[in-house]
Design a protein that fits this description.
alpha+beta, three-stranded antiparallel β-sheet, two-stranded antiparallel sheet, 10 helices, 33% helix
Length: 298
């Protein structure tokens, strides 16, 4: 998914797209762009040994797109058809073969989220009317250049595809990248002395390959947009000590805890045992301790 991909990756894409189960929902082979970014999966039995191994290793080590927030330029490069983060029933219903989906595929050649976003944005044109007979410049252009019979219907269906995206994956939403850089610049000029500013940026930038993670556990992730704004206009300092610990670390019987020390007899001191729902390890305890410490500052 980018200009720097090795040549063999394009052959792999073609083989994956060609060898699919009979019940594959994406019938148009030109829309099967990447099985790691879409719901469809290739038929492993029909694949060459190397490509079959690649699919198996990806499944074994939990490879999938995951992150706290993503740059819009990255989100726009992901295939929109059969987008893996959408509800499968909804996205397949929207893509059901019809005059409008055929037009979107072959006349307007929409493929990525960015394609759909730019196309659907024509609905916001003040001169556009929500009818088949609209004579706005965008509709006239679609009729004459693309031979589109009903531009408004196509614009509207493109918007419906975008509306199926979870907020975190929708480039039309406000995202942390909109204010992260400004917020960090303000922190650096806030007069904090003898301290190191913690980098609060959570946005993943770069190509689509940058959004993949391994060793994920397969559980559903938060699909909303994180609000990373600082809640106060005045920044304060607090020096604390944090630590995490774990008994029987690495064993089934492991039990972890977290601690925060502000000062002797300080009511803000914390000592907690991690809930069983969390991974019981030293690292998790340290992460929880850091979270608890950050919550002590208003």
């Amino acid at each position: 998914m980018g200009q720097t991909r090795p040549w063999w990756a394009y052959f792999a894409d073609a083989l994956y797209a060609h060898h699919v189960p009979k019940d594959c929902k994406v019938k148009d082979i030109s829309l099967r762009l990447n099985p790691f970014l879409q719901h469809w999966k290739p038929s492993k039995r029909a694949l060459p040994l190397e490509l079959r191994a690649m699919i198996e290793v990806a499944a074994k080590y939990g490879l999938r797109p995951e992150g706290l927030a993503f740059a819009r330029t990255t989100l726009r490069r992901i295939p929109m058809w059969d987008h893996r983060e959408t509800d499968p029933i909804t996205i397949h219903r929207l893509a059901t073969k019809s005059a409008v989906t055929t037009c979107l595929k072959h006349k307007h050649t929409l493929r990525t989220v960015g394609d759909f976003e730019s196309f659907a944005a024509k609905l916001s044109n003040p001169q556009h009317r929500p009818t088949r007979d609209c004579t706005c410049k965008a509709c006239e252009q679609m009729i004459t250049e693309k031979r589109c019979a009903n531009p408004h219907r196509c614009f509207d269906r493109a918007k419906a595809f975008l509306d199926a995206l979870p907020p975190k994956w929708d480039p039309r939403r406000e995202h942390p990248e909109d204010y992260e850089e400004k917020q960090m610049n303000e922190l650096f000029t806030a007069g904090v002395k003898d301290g190191r500013i913690f980098d609060r940026t959570v946005t993943t930038y770069g190509g689509v390959g940058n959004i993949f993670r391994i060793f994920t556990d397969g559980r559903p992730t938060h699909q909303g947009v994180l609000d990373m704004r600082l809640q106060s206009d005045r920044y304060s300092e607090l020096t604390v000590a944090t630590d995490g610990s774990c008994l029987n670390n690495g064993e089934r019987s492991a039990r972890a805890g977290a601690g925060v020390f502000v000062g002797n007899n300080d009511p803000r001191n914390r000592s907690v045992r991690l809930p069983e729902a969390l991974s019981q390890s030293n690292q998790t305890g340290e992460a929880v301790a850091t979270y608890l410490a950050s919550s002590l500052i208003d």
